[in-house]
Amino acid sequence: MACELCEGDGGEVLWRDRQCRVIRVNESGYPGFCRAIWNTHVREMTDLDASERTRFMHVVFAVESALRELLRPDKINLASLGNATPHLHWHVIPRFRGDPHFPNPIWGAQLREPDALPADVAALQQALAERLS
Amino acid sequence: MACELCEGDGGEVLWRDRQCRVIRVNESGYPGFCRAIWNTHVREMTDLDASERTRFMHVVFAVESALRELLRPDKINLASLGNATPHLHWHVIPRFRGDPHFPNPIWGAQLREPDALPADVAALQQALAERLS
């Protein structure tokens, strides 16, 4: 079966190495929303070996750290779901009290209209490079 | 402000140590749904030090591993959200094609009625003890 995360990057790449990549998610009202995507087609975290798991979580937490420094969100949401796309990836979502769904998960009921907030992509790339290079 | 995860266990405890605990979530249609909860009131994963983060994820992945062995789910969903309860906790949710929301996240639109599936709590406690003790 075709997998969109095997066939393409899945978004604008902010950082990558041999094992995984971080992309920017272009979603209205969520300017800092990123995904960390394992490069090979693996289904679950426990399909990785221990060192790969540690490395992938290190990348996820580097994204969290970069987003906290740059955006000062009210909360960070982390999620590995993949029911529709079972290729291992983490959503890293900075959440704000005024965002479209807060305090609901972004998959829950929308409570307000999104603001047209720009993402500072260059700053995010720089903050990731500092943490991961 | 009162925190429900400081004031109580947050559910039936399946396993615990000094740093964290695993509880069973009593939610209709999701018999193996567990939460891993950090014992002290910490907001984000990047508020933990590196060894605490590694330990907490080790516990989360032990829950995932136990649930995969016992239930053979179609997918595992992992999420640290905490918008309403900003006390660090992970949802570990075995997902099945016939569950109430699949392929939606459990916070999305419900697509079918939940079955009254029993949870084998003793087997889950045993599988966690094997992995974490």
Structure commentary:
Two copies of one chain form a homodimer. Chain A is built from three helices and five strands, in the order H-E-E-E-H-E-E-H. With 133 residues, the first copy, chain A, is an alpha+beta fold. A five-stranded antiparallel beta sheet of chain A has the order 1-2-3-5-4, covered by helices on one side. In chain A, a hairpin with a 3-residue loop joins strand 1 and strand 2. Chain A is globular. Chain A binds chain B through residues 43-46, 53-54, 57, 61, 64-65, 68, 74-84, 86, 95, 102-105, 107-108, and chain B through 43-46, 53-54, 57, 61, 64-65, 68, 74-84, 86, 95, 102-105, 107-108.
Helix/strand layout:
Two copies of one chain form a homodimer.
Chain A: H1 4-7, E1 12-16, E2 20-24, E3 34-38, H2 50-71, E4 75-80, E5 89-95, H3 121-132
Helix pairs in contact in A: 2-3
Tell me briefly what this model is.
2 copies of one chain form a homodimer. The first copy, chain A, has helices at 4-7, 50-71, 121-132; strands at 12-16, 20-24, 34-38, 75-80, 89-95.
Our Rg estimate of chain A from Cα atoms comes to: 15 Å
Tell me the major beta sheet of chain A: 5 strands, antiparallel
Give the rounded overall mean pLDDT of chain A.
95
- Termini Cα gap of chain A: 34 Å
Oligomer type = homodimer
Residue ranges of chain A: pLDDT <50 for 5 or more in a row?
A: none
Structural class, from secondary structure content of chain A?
alpha+beta
The share of residues in helices of chain A is 25-40%
> Which pair of chains has the greatest number of interface residues, and how are they split between the two chains?
A-B, 30 and 30 residues
Number of strands of chain A: 5
Quote the beta fraction of chain A.
Answer: 15-25%
> Helix count of chain A?
3
Q: What order do the SSEs of chain A take from the amino end to the carboxyl end, as H and E?
A: HEEEHEEH
For the biggest β-sheet of chain A, the strand order reads 1-2-3-5-4
Shape of chain A: globular
